[in-house]
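agent: user wants the full assembly modeled, not chains individually. Plan: 1) parse entity lines 2) check alphabet per entity 3) run joint structure prediction 4) return tokens. Steps 1-2 passed, four entities, 1270 residues total. Proceeding.
--- entities ---
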Amino acid sequence: MSTLFYIVEAAVKAVFVLFAIAFPLASLLIWQERKQSALIQDRLGPNRAFINLPFIRRFRFFGLLHLVADSIKMFMKEDFMPAGARPFLFQMAPVLALAPVLLVFAVIPFGDTLLLYLPDKDLFYAVNLSVASLDTGLLFLLAVISLTVYGTVLAGYAPDSKPGMLGALRAGAQMFSYEAAMGLTVAGVLMVYGTMAIDHIARAQDSLVLGFLPAWGVVYQPLGALLFLIAATAETKRVPFDMPEGESEIVGYFVEYSAMKFGTFMFAEFLEVVAVAALLTVLFFGAYHLPWLSWNHHVIPWLTGLIGAHTVTPGLNIQVVSLVTALLQLLVFMAKVGFFCFLQLLVRWTLPRFRYDQLMDFGWKLLLPAAMINLALTAVAVLALGKAG
Amino acid sequence: MSGRKDDPRRLWSDPPAGPPPLAEGLKPLGHDELDIELGPAHPAMHGIVKLKLRVEGESIIRCEPEVGYLHRGFEKTCEHRRWTQCIPYVDRLNYVSAPVNDIAFCMTVEDMLGVAVPARAVALRTLLMEAGRIVDHLTCLGASAMELGAFTAFLWLMQAREEWYFFLEHYCGARITTNLSRIGGQPYDLFTGFEAEVEACLKKTEDMVFKVHKLSTRNRIFHDRLRGTGVIDADTALDLGFTGPLLRGSGLDLDLRKARPYLLYDKLDFHVPVGLHGDNYDRYLVRLEEIRQSASLVRQVLHAIPEGPLMVEDPHISLVPKTAVYNHIEGIIHHFKLLTGGHAVPAGHWYKAVEAPNGELGFYLVSDGGGMPYRVRARPPSLYATAGLPEMLKGQMIADVVATFGSINMIGGELER
Amino acid sequence: MDLAGLRLILEEKHQGAVEDAAASPPDNDELLLNAAFLRPVCDTLKHHPRLSFRLMADLCCVDLLAWPGFDPATDKRFMLVYHLYSVAHNRRLRLKTLAGGDDPAVDSVAAVWRAADWPEREIHEMFGVRFNGRGDLKPLFLYEEFQGHPLCKDYPLKGQQPVVDLRAPLPLREDPAHFQTAFEKAYFRPVGLTQIDNTARLPESMLAEGALARLSQAAKAYKKRHGIDGQGLPGPVRGGGDHERP
Amino acid sequence: MHANTGHTQSDGPKDTQTRSSLPDFMAENRPLSLAEKLYVPAMARGLAMTFGRFMANFLFKRHIVTSSYPEQRREVSDRWRGRHRLTRRAEDGGLACVACKMCEMACPSHCITIVAEERTLPLVTSRQRIDKRPRSFTIDMARCIYCGLCVEACPEDAIRMDTGIIATVGYQRAEVCLDRNNLAKPPPPMHPLLHQDLRYPDDALLPRILRRYLGKDR
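--- prediction returned ---
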């Protein structure tokens, strides 16, 4: 296999992850946030945008067309830059806010392995279903997540705006503080599974613990999962940690941005929600695995039996089974991600927001010690149970 | 009133909690002050007001409210309107609870005229005033919750408020600017299904308030945002002219409904909630409790509205019934006389205050004996509350501005008139 | 303690401070004060244990220019009205005091009750009455460039205020360069507005062109007709009050 | 200082009919317990509440209060003070207004302008009657504050605010300055869409079959 092949493979997977998983989920999330908040608050939510189809007049599609309308609006609006802004940084900030979030998706496995049948050589090529299966996936993850702060801080700093600057300062402090706790919780997972490769961690969650519990991260690390969720919500700057935005105090670090530049920030925020949900799924909630139903031991044999009767060549048989398995895994993965997105939105519409000093207190005095205790307990348990290897 | 400070139920003794003050003379690293302006068009500044803040980091060093964006010359306008014509203008003082303003103004003029309003109108006025109080507190609590980020609580409370507005619409034909009182009584009688509708409003209010209470009150995030912020002790509050829930939150149970009973209040059973610490959390609880008390008051009055006339039966005070206008020359003469000449309020001046939702709403009216007021002065509770805002924000953080500003419930209409 | 007792206490401490008293309990008892004694009397009212008027409920002003029988040549024009409330004794008191002349002024009571701060600023802009012994009297509701005093009876109902140059918001402290963001520097420069004639359409005073003499004559005629002598100030409405509460 | 004993634990009136169902809120003025300090109970309760509300609305639209405004309009009350109209006489169909200008006088915002003229009424009895009528009757709806004092002032029942029109709109001020003809016209018929049941315009979040399983709307 040539290098070109690897590049093409990675590119195809990247395009798939972004355009089949990340972007649709993030856009849907914008709609879902509006609709879900509306239903919580006894409203109907967006339902007015419509198109006239040949046989359906006023086709509203549950308000989803508002996404189209909104994006058209975002692109059409005047892109305004304040007079005192530093133009280069001002232009760069949205990009810097969006790029690291996209990079997070590079290491997230959305399925196990897809076998590609190469008929001319009569052999299978195994495609790992994550864009990059890095050996140091967790490290990469932490490194990339810590990059998001640049976009945020620059967004506040570049336009020379006071509320923006305050928001940027808040964002910087908050993200640095919660990264520590997040890193420690992730380290717990690392200890339990003994690997940094995220796809290995995902695969390891297939079996059962004590014979009846799925070997998910949350079973080993219940506190860790909770802490990760909290820390990651803080990283994404969503309620109750939306101090940098704080729309009723300082209007937010992106206060001077308009049109699609603002849209980019918003989109990045929702992408972060998806990313957090995906990470939570992969690290703690069994990735693409079903509880008590192993792909390797139950599903694939069953599928082989089911499909095998109707196919002619074994190669093609395996190919079809692999494809169906991958699709099912993707489905399971998406369902879990969807659930956690829902949960995050529910939290967002339930809680008020912290104050800056309370946020810091919470991060340093509650979250970080808890994460440390969790880490210490994990270390002791891992040593005691001899699972370190 | 300084006796409040050693109340054993207080959570802290003085000085109150909150972010520690910056050490004097010691400049922290990177010491620089920043002036920022919240408003006049700012999500938290409901009404139009500008807060000029000088902050050091997140801590507020100085605060200066800049008002006047909603000044529209109410007092000057009323000097050129007949007494009855002032009532729609009075509506627009505290536009959230317009019935209270209307009734207070009419009661003041009735005092000057020396007329007694029929019992039915008195009972109805009591009910409407309490309804206004509930509406106002619902709005205030909802808006404060929204500014803390709890948008859901806001919309739940707004639903209850809508019920009351529908009720007001059924009663007087308008939701907000009600114009529902006249000099000499109430022009509108009960409508069919009045009791049921009030009961429905009360039920909805209690339902929603209970929900929001469950959602917020014991939530630590909410608690921490309010507890120990915007602290003001009773002495300072009184000195600054605070009244109403602000003063009661500081522990002084000054309520004009008890201290100076008007309407039916001395015959009704209710108690005045007071806070212990004078912070935003106390004011939040006081408002919640006042909703509960007002709901009880509405129920007490609702089942005891006597039969009888609604307006003073004096053609010099209230308009004669329309049948008399249509059919009798005497009636039409009185009608024209009252409309063109206005009320013959004797010369002199008068001050009367009622317990509006935000505090003491007083009307100081001067009459020169003509058909128009010589001078109309409304004593707006919001003016004094907003003037005292810097005192409450001293040493607090930027995020506390919205919580404190929400709890004083500034209403631009009555502040700036 | 009724109004007479209250008056006694005050006169004991401040000889000649109370010029007149009118009782109309419970809410409309009033005293007419000699303006020179305003500040010390207020101090006494607030701090005397038997008075203890801790709450200044309201402070407002009445322009007596159009009041029946008012003679601008001799009478003081502005009546300042203080509504006090004693929480301890649950009573109200109204103080009246007069200010007049070319530069009407009274002593500030903002040092006694801090609540008086904003109302004094409001009265200053609305009536032009100055308050001695306090800090800035910058406009509360109106803007710095506003011409005239709108709540005065001679302020015309129709007319237009001069157009004011667009300016940056007034700074909190004297350092505009620091205060302004770059945005404000760029956008709040008064460009192109200097051509506007901002002296046009000043409010015309009703008192121009000998109106003072005419008003004086009318006042004398009124006083003669109604048999009033001395100052016919507004007092509590006779027979006013909460009658026959059911 | 009177009765400054802090909050007294009184449960309000003893009569059960008038007692509120709400708890004593001042009792909440106490420090947070340890569990509450850990954010857990309130957060769990809050999430349960919002989730319950969400599901009730998602599946059954139980509490939805939104009305889809232009298509669906709520009924306004009988006493609703909407846009004015001028009534007509039963006998000859002419305007009932006699141009007495009482409404103009009662209007606090000076939005009514009437110019009167004389008119000769048809011979009802042997005498010919001469009456006043408005040559022009203008209401500047941009100034009107909908206080209803004009209706109270009218001695002829000639002006009413019972059209149920909740907003008078126009692109220019002149368009909302209504003259005699506009005011005397009967209110325009409702939009045809109004007759359809458009409470939730194809906004079903669940397929209809599922909803039939789970229960009906309201």
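agent: reporting back. Chain A has one domain: 80-384. Strands of chain A lie at 113-118, 123-128, 208-209, 213-214.
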